[in-house]
Amino acid sequence: DAKTTQPNSMESNEEEPVHLPCNHSTISGTDYIHWYRQLPSQGPEYVIHGLTSNVNNRMASLAIAEDRKSSTLILHRATLRDAAVYYCILPGAGSYQLTFGKGTKLSVIP
Amino acid sequence: NAGVMQNPRHLVRRRGQEARLRCSPMKGHSHVYWYRQLPEEGLKFMVYLQKENIIDESGMPKERFSAEFPKEGPSILRIQQVVRGDSAAYFCASSPFRGAAWTLNEQFFGPGTRLTVL
Predict the structure, then answer these.
(1) A98 touching B, CB under 8 A?
(2) For residue A101, which residues of chain B lie inside 8 Å, CB to CB?
(3) Which of A11, A60, A92, B48 is most open to solvent, judged by the fewest CB atoms within 10 Å of its CB?
(4) Which residues of chain A have a CB within 8 Å of the CB of B102?
(5) pLDDT, tens digit, for every residue of B27-77?
(6) Interatomic CA distance for residues B68 and B53, integer angstroms
(7) A80 DSSP 8-state letter
(8) To which H or E segment does residue B18 belong?
């Protein structure tokens, strides 16, 4: 798996946008970028994934740099329920092993 | 549409006892993965199974740990002669059938079993 680097923690005010960065300078051309999150005392939950183009779904948006060496997960309006650890993962094409690092712990302030 | 189910949610064992953790994948999913999360760490892959087959157990400790996914019934992660270092959260995930062109790695996780070894 390509190595990823994320900040240990971030804070956001409720109802404001949050930008969670991830660096992956050793990414290969076939690596998809996946984001999962883990709410307290729960299992991880898939958030979004992308390859080259920016992606949107009902949970979040994923902005991928043109050189693909970094990406940003965007939560458009943070809620208290979004407080979780967010993991940026590059499992490799066809790989089933998800390698979870330390992730970014997001705190949402009411 | 029920998600991945794991039981028990909490399990307490004394050193030397056996722990059995069960996982029922989502309906229609034939692939099961087990992960372990030690305190203050990220999840680590343990084993990948399909019905009646172990595909990859490269992340499983060589001794005392075993996993199965029988034709009928849930997947079982079995830990024999537990030690304090086995205390962790154990998560099961499942995914649907993977075709030849499959590239999405989305896995659906259960709520986990928190094992405490006294």
Answers:
(1) yes
(2) 42
(3) A11
(4) 94
(5) 988 899 999 999 888 899 999 999 889 999 999 999 999 999 999 999 999
(6) 8
(7) G
(8) none
